[in-house]
Design a protein that fits this description.
The chain contains 16 helices and 22 strands. The chain starts with a strand and ends in a 19-residue tail after the last helix. The mean pLDDT is 94.
């Protein structure tokens, strides 16, 4: 049987149920309370004590501790902003009410009205004149000395995690502020926030395995979106020159400290610019968000100092592979030469890989782990960039970059391909890969091709993983630490 500070949890639950029954019999059912007029929160009182001293306040929150000294109780009340002490004296609240308050349990939700003052020890507190039980906690909170440390349980019962681990709540408050700052940055620059479908008849815009569902009325399979790209570019065709969408993406892939099947991204598109414009925007946006939310552009991530001050390092994939893997792809003109060089470097690629695929393979195997400080990797092979413009002077490469920080990809951007004939050829190559069993290859989107035939202006596009950005700015090790409700395997599976 589970124990709680030496006492079986079942016994503690029984005691709490008895207390609830006693309250109801006395006509004081806490679950019947519908409203409580809160006037202040803990942080406001603590920060503005000089102006609020001796003022009447009404606060509400959860009892987190209770210490009795004869006819006086000291309780810590936790609200949305933090904690504040309640000073409850028998001769102030009355003997009858005091005897009831003494029976309140840790975890109960209470409201308190009284005056702001400082105790003899100098702690800002509320001298309660009346305390009201607003909701009864029927289960005991984790004991105060060890808290909720079981990682699996923390993710499954996030509500409990938020109650007992203040730093967790701080992370999600910061997440909200990061999202607000991103929107403010883009809105101020004339971008329009839009919404595009989460369900579609094809899964396009990325190389990923989709989730498949079924629409009963239409009697057809549909896909949860793996990207917002193709719909947003339709809007560029329609004359919306700056658009963005922040929302959930769904990919039926593996789970790790960096991956969750559903996650949040922002994609934005701007007409009449290219990937150079997107690079400038990316470093300005992330640096601005760090400064506005954290007050600095120099942050710590897992013991490493990261400097987000622009400008950031820019290096081509070919240069990076030469520098870190010792393979100079500029001297390798055929697939066979590239394959031999990669094998000679001690790597084990698929023998069917093309020169461009081998370049990308080497980058992922030997370079990514070295990119700790903000680094833009430019000019990806055309084989791994089916929606990207080719470089005019090097058609085997594309005008694409990815941003790496702490050895993780944080953003991906292109000079968007707007040639409908080239785009169809790229889609056809992707479909051949699907026919060979690649479930992540792009599907042909005929309506998108039709949109391109009407004409899409030169355009730059950018995608940023919001969860990974929040991980970076909150020094969180796992993506599950920045998702309120990460995907979890049921306990009975």
């Amino acid at each position: 049987m589970q124990q709680f500070e030496g006492q079986p949890v079942s016994e503690l639950v029984a005691i709490r149920r008895d207390k609830l029954a006693e309250l109801r019999q006395g006509g004081a059912d806490p679950f019947a309370v519908t409203t409580y007029g809160v006037t202040h929160h803990s942080a406001q009182i603590l920060q503005d004590f000089e102006n609020l001293e001796d003022s009447e306040v009404r606060i509400a929150g959860r009892l987190m501790s209770k210490r009795g000294m004869g006819k006086v109780l000291f309780c810590d009340l936790s609200d949305r902003d933090g904690k504040i002490q309640l000073f409850i004296k028998q001769d102030v609240v009355g003997e009858a009410d005091y005897s009831v308050i003494k029976k309140y349990d840790i975890g109960d939700i209470v409201g308190a009205e009284g005056t702001v003052f400082k105790t003899k020890t100098g702690e800002v507190s509320v001298r309660a004149a009346k305390v009201t039980l607003l909701a009864k906690s029927m289960l005991p909170l984790p004991e105060k000395f060890h808290g909720l440390t079981d990682t699996d349980l923390r993710y499954r019962q996030r509500y409990l995690d938020l109650i007992v681990n203040p730093d967790v709540k701080k992370t999600f408050v910061t997440r909200s502020r990061i999202i607000t700052a991103i929107r403010a940055f883009l809105d101020a620059r004339g971008y329009l926030e839009v919404d595009t479908p989460m369900l579609g008849t094809i899964a396009g815009g990325a190389a990923a395995r989709p989730f498949i569902t079924h629409h009963n009325t239409l009697d057809m399979d549909m896909y949860l979106r793996i990207a917002t790209e193709l719909h947003l570019k339709r809007l560029i065709v329609g004359g919306m020159e700056k658009v963005y969408e922040m929302g959930r993406i769904f990919r039926n892939e593996g789970m790790s400290i960096k991956h969750n099947p559903e996650f949040t991204t922002i994609e934005l598109y701007e007409a009449f610019t290219d990937y150079n414009g997107m690079m400038n925007l990316t470093e300005q946006l992330i640096a601005s968000v760090a400064r506005d939310v954290l007050g600095t552009m120099k942050i710590a991530y897992q013991g490493e100092e990261i400097d987000l001050t622009p400008p950031w390092r820019r290096i081509t994939m070919t240069e990076a592979v030469k520098l870190y893997a010792g393979i100079d792809f500029d001297t390798l003109t055929t697939d066979e030469q590239a394959l031999a060089a990669v094998k000679a470097a001690g790597l084990s690629p698929d023998a069917k890989m093309s020169r461009g695929e081998l370049l990308n393979f080497c980058f992922e195997a030997r370079v990514e782990e070295k990119l700790v400080q903000p680094t833009f990797i430019l000019d990806y092979p055309v084989e791994v960039s089916p929606l990207t413009k080719k470089k005019p002077d090097a058609p085997e490469l594309t005008e694409r970059f990815e941003l790496f920080i702490t050895a993780r990809e944080l953003a991906n951007a292109y000079s968007e391909l707007n040639d409908p004939f080239d785009q169809r050829e790229r889609f056809m190559r992707q479909m051949l890969l699907r026919e060979k069993g690649d479930e992540e290859a792009n599907m042909i989107d005929e309506d998108f091709l039709t949109a391109l035939e009407y004409g899409m202006p030169p355009c730059g596009g950018l995608g940023i993983g919001i969860d990974r950005l929040v991980m970076l700015l909150t020094d969180s090790y796992s993506i599950r630490d920045v998702l309120l409700f990460p995907t979890m395997k049921p306990l009975d599976k």
